[in-house]
């Protein structure tokens, strides 16, 4: 029996896909632990995986509206003096705290490390010290390419040369973020000094495999990526085969036409009252019913119109909820964007930060989404009218739903977790 440790850090969308990967590995007979933050212990254990703790939980240390995990992503943008320095300090502190936890999470009998994008720059040192294989499993494109700019640069192409240059610069920024944590970790593990850049370049020269957990339906594999960088399809969060939507949700769905989903995931903390009123007004103006997912913003019906056309919910699997919607309005994180495509429903993207504008642009290019409404624009005077118009466009255009249905059929042929299983078994054979 192979003993596999998955490490993942960040918000819900950074963790949940690895529960599906872990469950697939476990079903194949492997012993799987997932190391992540305390907030996600129930998620991990429900999937039948061993939970191991990582520090720096974003849910309990959000000193900034962006949160430390989001700061790590935002700091990957092309550096600019001023605000970026503060973001990088915040991200580096998050990473430094994370480093010790990753070292503690690996037991002596671990046979294989599976690493998320956030934990990989630290996990590779651990794999070197233990003499065990590791496999990087990012949820977004990370390697430089001429096909598009780095995913956190806003989605605007800089031309092939410019895209590659920006991609290399983003890797340099990441190397700087992890420098202190890597130095401490290598000293603790008894390894000779080596910078993150040196370790990364060794891995690239050796052709170390990297499996990307998104679909070529949204992002075709870049033409200039080296051999070993493979796009394998999405990894879907685990949920029990007999899971059902809560009775209150089923009752609401049965009471009228398919509603519109609105949620911002781990974004917009503390803005629940304003966003709830705005969402309710936009839904009313568009003459559609709605489901608000509370999320970190704390969306609620408490401050909105009191009728039967709006429901607030907590966490429910998007795989069960989204196919029952007429459209979905969300922040366009990688997992939520893919879940909308998988469900075959149109999307209204409201990207906030990091890679979200990139995914919003991909959905629009695929024909399954309206034009983006940047989250900051929800503070303008015409926000209600603009959101209502986008919801009407999403729900009333048959072509957009047809594109979404076709894309969903293509996603259904992919088996991303199965590809991870095959790669993992090759590595430990």
Tag the structure with descriptive keywords.
alpha/beta; 429 residues; Rossmann fold; 5-stranded parallel beta sheet
Describe the structure in your own words.
With 429 residues, the chain is α/β, with parallel strands linked by helices. It has 2 domains: 3-234 and 414-428, Rossmann fold (3-Layer(aba) Sandwich), CATH 3.40.50; 247-411, Glycogen Phosphorylase B (Rossmann fold), CATH 3.40.50.2000. Helix content is 45%, strand content 11%. The protein has 15 helices and 12 strands. The protein has helices at residues 12-27, 41-46, 67-74, 83-105, 120-130, 159-189, 196-205, 247-254, 272-286, 318-321, 334-343, 356-366, 383-396, 398-411, 416-428; strands at residues 3-7, 31-36, 50-53, 112-115, 134-136, 210-212, 229-231, 260-262, 290-293, 310-313, 327-330, 347-349. The chain has a 5-stranded parallel sheet, with helices on both faces. Helix 1 (12-27) packs across helix 15 (416-428), helix 4 (83-105) crosses helix 6 (159-189) and helix 9 (272-286) crosses helix 13 (383-396). The chain is globular and about 65 Å long. It starts with a strand and ends with a helix. Mean pLDDT is 90; it is low at 63-69 and 71-83.
The number of domains is: 2
Label the structural class: alpha/beta
Give the overall silhouette: globular
CATH level-four homologous superfamily name of the largest domain: Glycogen Phosphorylase B
The low-confidence parts are 63-69, 71-83
CATH class identity of the largest domain: Alpha Beta
Strand order of the largest sheet: 3-2-1-4-5
Q: What are the secondary-structure elements, in order, as H or E?
A: EHEHEHHEHEHHEEHEHEEHEHEHHHH
User: How is the CATH topology of the largest domain named?
Assistant: Rossmann fold
Mean pLDDT: 90
Tell me the number of helical segments per DSSP (H or I, 4 or more residues long).
Answer: 15
């Amino acid at each position: 029996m192979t003993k596999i440790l998955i490490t993942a850090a960040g918000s819900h969308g950074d963790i949940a896909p690895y529960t599906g990967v872990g469950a697939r590995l476990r079903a194949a007979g492997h012993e799987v632990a997932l190391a992540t933050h305390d907030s996600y212990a129930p998620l991990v254990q429900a999937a039948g995986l061993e939970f191991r703790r990582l520090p720096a939980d974003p849910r309990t240390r959000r000193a900034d509206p962006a949160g430390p995990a989001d700061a790590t992503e935002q700091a990957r943008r092309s550096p600019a003096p001023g605000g970026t320095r503060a973001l990088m300090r915040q991200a580096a502190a998050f990473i430094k705290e994370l480093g010790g936890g990753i070292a503690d999470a690996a037991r002596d009998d671990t046979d294989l490390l599976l690493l998320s994008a956030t934990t990989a720059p630290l996990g590779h040192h651990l794999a070197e010290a233990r003499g065990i294989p590791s496999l990087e499993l990012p949820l977004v494109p990370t390697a430089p390419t001429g096909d598009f700019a780095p995913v956190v640069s806003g989605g605007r192409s800089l031309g092939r040369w410019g895209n590659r240059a920006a991609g290399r610069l983003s890797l340099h920024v990441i190397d700087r973020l992890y420098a202190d944590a890597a130095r401490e970790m290598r000293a603790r593990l008894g390894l000779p000094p080596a910078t993150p850049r040196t370790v990364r370049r060794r891995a690239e020269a050796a052709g170390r495999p990297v499996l990307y957990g998104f679909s070529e339906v949204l992002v075709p594999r870049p033409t200039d990526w080296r051999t070993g960088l493979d796009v394998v399809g999405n990894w879907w969060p685990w949920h029990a085969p007999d899971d059902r939507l809560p009775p209150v949700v089923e009752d609401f769905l049965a009471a009228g036409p398919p509603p519109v989903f609105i949620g911002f995931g781990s974004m917009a903390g503390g803005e629940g009252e304003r966003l709830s009123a705005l969402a309710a007004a936009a839904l009313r103006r568009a003459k559609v019913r709605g489901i608000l997912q509370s999320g970190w913003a704390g969306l609620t019906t408490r401050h909105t119109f009191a009728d039967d056309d709006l429901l607030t919910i907590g966490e429910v699997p998007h795989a069960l909820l989204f196919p029952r919607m007429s459209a979905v309005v969300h922040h366009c994180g990688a997992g939520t964007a893919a879940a909308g495509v998988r469900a075959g429903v149109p999307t209204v993207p409201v990207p906030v930060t990091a890679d979200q504008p990139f995914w919003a642009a991909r959905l629009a290019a695929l024909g399954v989404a309206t034009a983006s409404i940047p989250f900051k624009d929800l503070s303008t005077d015409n926000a209600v009218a603009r959101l209502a118009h986008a919801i009407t466009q999403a729900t009333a255009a048959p072509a957009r739903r047809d594109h979404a249905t076709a894309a969903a059929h293509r996603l259904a042929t992919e088996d991303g977790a199965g590809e991870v299983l095959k790669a993992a078994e090759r590595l430990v054979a």
